[in-house]
Write the structure tokens for this entry.
Amino acid sequence: MSGIRRPDHDRDQRVVERLGAVVGPGHVLRGADAAPFCTDWRGLFTGAPLAVVRPADAAQVAACVAACAAACVGVVAQGGNTGLCGGATPRDGEIVLSLGRLRRVRDVDPVDLVMEVEAGVTLQAARLAAAEAGLDLPLGIASEGSAQIGGVLATNAGGTATLRHGTARDLALGLEVVLADGRIWNGLRRLRKDNTGYALTKLFVGSEGTLGIITAACLRLVPAAGTREVAFVAVASPEAALGFLGLLRRADDAALAAFEYISGAALRLALAQIEGLSDPLGAPASHYVLLEMSSPRADALLRPVLEAVLAEAMEGGLVTDAVLAASEAQRDALWWLRETLGEAQQRAGATVKNDISVPISRIPDFLRQAAAVCVALEPGVGVVPFGHFGDGNIHFNLMVPDASQGEALMHAVGEVARGMGGSFSAEHGIGQLKTGSLGEWRGGVEMDIFGAIKDALDPRGVLNPGKIFACNSRT
Amino acid sequence: MSGIRRPDHDRDQRVVERLGAVVGPGHVLRGADAAPFCTDWRGLFTGAPLAVVRPADAAQVAACVAACAAACVGVVAQGGNTGLCGGATPRDGEIVLSLGRLRRVRDVDPVDLVMEVEAGVTLQAARLAAAEAGLDLPLGIASEGSAQIGGVLATNAGGTATLRHGTARDLALGLEVVLADGRIWNGLRRLRKDNTGYALTKLFVGSEGTLGIITAACLRLVPAAGTREVAFVAVASPEAALGFLGLLRRADDAALAAFEYISGAALRLALAQIEGLSDPLGAPASHYVLLEMSSPRADALLRPVLEAVLAEAMEGGLVTDAVLAASEAQRDALWWLRETLGEAQQRAGATVKNDISVPISRIPDFLRQAAAVCVALEPGVGVVPFGHFGDGNIHFNLMVPDASQGEALMHAVGEVARGMGGSFSAEHGIGQLKTGSLGEWRGGVEMDIFGAIKDALDPRGVLNPGKIFACNSRT
């Protein structure tokens, strides 16, 4: 692979000029203007790119990629820059393609239940456009006001609505993608079924900009919820949460829309950090579940179902306290509590973020074992997990007195998940942060397949170098 | 690529001996014993393989592939041999790996809602194993008694349950795959979320044995239905069917499990061909819908919902007649009618099978235009379409007096779908039958990507040569 390059200021200057000719000089940012695009949201990674370039459409993206490929300059596509693993942060000497100008919602079709959107549309704007047609784009992440569709797809975003509707990959019916050689693949089909060749849409989703740059997508929509019930529930233990989930599934699996876990410690930390938050329940508990049931029917009688399950769960000792939202405002307040957990931990200081998944049945064991190994390693650690219990995905986050211990703690938590057939990155992806873990966990045959696919679609290593694959292994 | 080979009887003999050493001589079939494995179900393709080999497990599959790769002999994996495009039929001089001995249901987990099965388990056996645990593997195809999981996944099978639960790809959480070099990729993870590298499971599903041979899978299950309502409905027109679908979605999208279309001509042909079938309605109609609503709840009140929608649809002139199944036997009888349509057409003689998909909103236009072009080409044609209306997937089948006209008719029907952004193979795949269409429809950039992936994972062209890619284009 020929991605290795030496500094060459003349060439760099020529590339930037060429890109300026493509997008117009006003859309090439350098120096202070470029700074916001050079560091990730968590402040873990900073790069010094040659420039940040803001193309207007797929043709300009393609021309930019072709110019960079010709000069062997790495290209990092960037959306809202809300990723948690540094996947959209440039390394030195690269070009950032910021896709925020591709922001057209091209079409919302209420019969086909499909929308076609460009990469730079924020998730929130896309969801609003769907809502205006009485539909829902069922993907909820805390950063949806900033995160853009291109990045959401490139990282196969998950969030709080995946329990019923799956991740971004499950919602993607078709894509438009700029390839490493600057050609455009138009796969913008809006078909529910299409067995004509390999599943390219599924492959590009989650490839973190290393196989192609997504410029537009056809996304599956669902009818908006006509009935919603949200409850905040204290459970006796993680095992009790699992038992409670089983009762809900048996009562009405099809209506269960979210089943989120919040540790007591995570809740208390949020209450301390975020103004205006209050504990929905009277007395503190160690484990909570935030759940939502919903139905497209306006007259679905979900509340009696939920009340009956809660009564059964209380009688069985699984649930110790619960509150049901009585209004839209109360529903929003309960969800706001869940959505601020990450922000609260960020504000509280040095956080180790884990993004573990295990088979759902193993969550209680995982929570217990992971806490034990962390406390053994660092007695002063604050264990503040929360996450998507119903998907087996726990953000086993830690407040550490000394940030230098982060890596050892992450590794220890990972090993617990690994012993349970789990994953070290359920929804955040690999980016720059987790390339080491990927090689370690998925080594051998699996990394060879990844590498073969990368080489096949980006033989010169132009697209997002150093992401998914460690810098020196594939550039 | 080095797949081109000249006849070499000594080498062929050595390969077969080597395979016999791997699987035991009793599991190498030749001559008359091999014949059932050499022709596809429709009788369109026949090959003369060197032998049919029946490995017992993934390790034997791997050893067989390695032996064939070393000798540059093509390998065709075969399950139940029920495919409709010749994807599992060998060409001359190849080896058939028949996977029916890999028939263990390894695990059914009612908490994780996952089953782990080997490739040779029939779809029916897998569904029965799930049902015994109170769960459902939600994939229904007419051939489920013979079709095996490996083939179901290799072809990304669809069928009558995809409206709610998606195709085989959507159900596959993890796979075990033998690669072209004889190594085994163990991707048998049972995680709902796992963003660690490229979506290999999604890529192998639907790759028709050309990228790897699936030997086992972890599949997503759902709670079994506690309430089911099935109705057979005469609709005034295809547009009326679309309007009726909209009413059902608005009433209870989450409960809609199937929405199948049957043309009057297809029904009458089935009534004539299949003994014991009877018309569920009193008077003949031109267009029918077979629909199912279901819920995991045992006490879900779906019948009143369905009756209300039917009343509204009748009042609006969308529905002209309807019958609701009153018992499990009646439900089965209605579904049997739907499932025999393909068999009835096969019995009735020369059939042209189309497997079109279009955006759902375009189905009425498609049905009308496709019928018009067929009658224009061949006035004696019998137009007998049916299919998965709710997925936009219509089997626009034709009874032709002269089989030689099949290709021209298929092409003409395809062009109508193409003009609507459709697909020429929604669920049957490419196999040998549709390699020409694939090149024509998905030419240029898309075929280049397919080719790059094929070359990356099977550089010597050992796996299922001549499938997906035409024989002389990639061997």
About this structure: Residues 108 and 129 of chain B are 7 Å apart (CA to CA). Chain B touches chain A through 88 residues (CB under 8 Å).
